[in-house]
Amino acid sequence: MISVDQALGKVLEHVDILDSEESPILNCLGQVLAEDVFSAINIPPLDNSAMDGYAVRAADSRGASQKSPRILRVIDTVGAGAVSRSEVAPGTAVRIMTGAPIPGGADSVVRFEDTDESERQGVPAEIGVLIEVAPGAEIRRAGEDIAVGSLVLKQGTRLRASEIGVLASLGCGKAKVIRRPVVAILSTGDEIEDIAKPLSQGKIYNSNSYSLAALVRHYGAVPEMLGIASDNEGSLMDKLGPGWDADMVITSGGVSLGDYDVVRKVLEKEGEIVFWRVREKPGKPLVFGLLKGRSKAGGAKNIPFFGLAGNPVSSMVNFELFARPAILKMMGRKHLTKPTVRAVVEDIIENTDGRRVFTRVFVEKRGDGYFARLTGPQGSGILTSMALANGLAIVPEDEPGVKPGDVVDVMMLDWGEEVE
């Protein structure tokens, strides 16, 4: 039985960054750029107005004040998306809207509120400037945001909504990104019933496939649900069939020492076991290995294989601890660990057998500190206590437990990996 840290290290040793693909930019949200992005244009493309106002020569505003306005002749009006062909000569101005290109001859913009326009009827033929402006006032320069030829987004950048917007501003309709892993998910057990069927006596509904598929999708990968396998090698092999060309396989159930726990046997025959059992609670009966699969081109490949325990909390906790960072690494992500906070616990948490304990808690901030309380009974089959939790309080292997008032690390479930 190995430690949590040793297990994670072995998992990450056996997963690699996937190949790249070109996709429409909106589909790339959350994915990682596979190449640098340079700009072929200036943004903005031309000097333009930062405000609604009047494009003027700054020299024509010299000495202007509320009591002594400088009167300029209005020779044109230009809106955003249009270009004025008028040249601003001494004593003239062009009425201009935000975003419109600065007309020739002008070197500054006077805001509407700094003129006497409100006192005039309609579009005025002349305007009184009430303040002095300096050259460059209220002008956004060409290339001020992005200069032509500049490196805009680096390879390895995770694309958020803001980066998608930047790509769109460059006119990029597609981006080259690390593709999303396809994760095949299979539940095992004669007692498992599909949620579309009436629940028979002695059966339980297949919650694990759905919670695991939701986690896969939450972290940016593509779940492929393979259904339910019975507790025999033939059924397991048959159901695994479509998963042979996936990027990862996750099963739940069938990894303990019972008569019907066949997952390890199949993995031994169809691949190799890297480790089995981890010094943790919940989730000790975890098997990780490599399944001999095939690539889309038909060649051989090793597929990372996680055999999770059948108890729903154990499967979710082990997904967060091991499958999630593996998926993120496959996607080219740099930050693989969940953020943690130091929190004061409000309940007793026991550690009776020298394993690292992950306890479901709800964390809230009070004043300058964090406080964590249990979300209910901690049995590994009590899924509702996971639904109420936003963190996992961690009791180290060498500690017998904690009491109210002690401070522990809490791995936050709902915070993104980018939080540092």
CATH H level of the largest domain: which superfamily?
Answer: MoaB/Mog-like domain
Overall mean pLDDT stands at 95
Q: What's the story with the biggest beta sheet?
A: 6 strands, mixed
Strand order of the largest sheet: 15-12-16-20-19-17
User: What is the terminal separation in angstroms?
Assistant: 31 Å
The radius of gyration over CA amounts to 31 Å
CATH-defined architecture of the largest domain: 3-Layer(aba) Sandwich
Q: What is the CATH fold-level name of the largest domain?
A: Molybdenum Cofactor Biosythetic Enzyme, Chain A
**How many domains make up the coordinates?**
4
Could you say which overall geometry the principal axes of the C-alpha atoms support? Answer: elongated
Q: What's the CATH C level of the largest domain?
A: Alpha Beta
Number of strands: 27
Strand-pairing-aware structural class = alpha/beta
Helix content: 10-25%
DSSP strand content:
25-35%
The residue ranges in which pLDDT falls below 50 over 5 or more consecutive positions are none
The number of helices is 7
